[in-house]
Specification:
By secondary structure, the chain is mainly α. Helices cover 80% and strands 0% of the residues. It is globular.
């Protein structure tokens, strides 16, 4: 148990060392958004730039991470595509093009689901999420405009599928990058749920702040997951994914962790 906790500390240190310098632009632009957005008008170029800049910096973060491994390369490109689609959604929503914005975010969820994959399946993780989505849509369904009655259930299904696939990837809590991605996916569901409740059911106090805080943290957690291979590679080269090489890779990581723990 003590070794496990030490390994978690080591991974936190590796992740922080790798990510923090590359995430400074994100933290700065998020601070600018919350500082200045109240002084701008919605549906203007200024407010759109403020809203989209943090996501653009996450594009930069993904592009600055390593792309050596073929599997890692595909994952990072799909996450990048999801961030680009999300930025398009932010732009459209800021100009009150709600249906188009929902469509852009639906595309983002498809890219994220493709990145996370369907192995391991773990259907029991997804069942409560689909139950929540069905209940939420049912509660506000009578308030929805005709087009949204079609769009919202489809988007809700894509959103909770993304959350399910992200959470299903968490093998153990020592893998902090997958945990961060899983928490990000949950916050994405919370953020979009606040939008739907505030718009179609009942007003939510400080809704815009709650929506954007959860949204930015969600995208941060998802984007952070792209460095999983890079952080691993910092301790040694990654091997092809076979039964024997996976075991060897784990042994190599254990040796690296022991070395790092001795440095703590």
């Amino acid at each position: 148990m003590e070794l496990l906790s030490e390994r978690v500390v080591v991974q936190w240190r590796r992740t922080a060392k790798f990510a923090i310098p590359r995430m400074l632009a994100f933290f700065v632009t998020v601070t600018l958004y919350f500082t200045l957005i109240g002084k701008t008008e919605r549906s203007t170029v200024t407010s759109t730039i403020l809203k989209c800049l943090p996501i653009v910096t996450l594009w930069m973060f993904v592009l600055m991470s390593d792309f050596e491994l073929k599997r890692s390369h595909r994952y990072k490109l799909l996450i990048l595509a999801g961030l680009v689609a999300s930025c398009a959604g932010d732009l459209l929503l800021n100009y009150d093009l709600f249906e188009a914005g929902m469509g852009a975010f639906g595309v983002a969820q498809i890219f994220y689901v493709s990145a996370f994959g369907f192995r391991p399946l773990r259907p029991w993780v997804g069942l409560p999420l689909y139950g929540f989505a069905i209940a939420a849509v049912a509660i506000m369904f009578h308030n929805l405009p005709t087009l949204i009655k079609i769009c919202l259930p489809i988007y809700g299904a894509l959103l909770v599928t993304m959350c399910w696939r992200s959470l299903a990837r968490i093998d153990c809590f020592k893998n902090i990058l997958r945990v961060a991605c899983g928490l990000g996916s949950v916050l994405f569901v919370i953020s979009d749920s606040i939008i739907a409740i505030d718009k179609f059911y009942t007003p939510v106090a400080n809704a815009q702040t709650a929506i954007m805080v959860t949204y930015y943290v969600a995208q941060f957690g998802i984007a952070l997951s792209v460095i999983e291979q890079s952080v691993t590679a910092s301790g040694g080269a990654a091997a092809p994914k076979t039964a024997n090489s996976s075991k060897q890779r784990q042994n190599d990581e254990d040796e690296v962790d022991k070395h790092d723990i001795e440095q703590v």
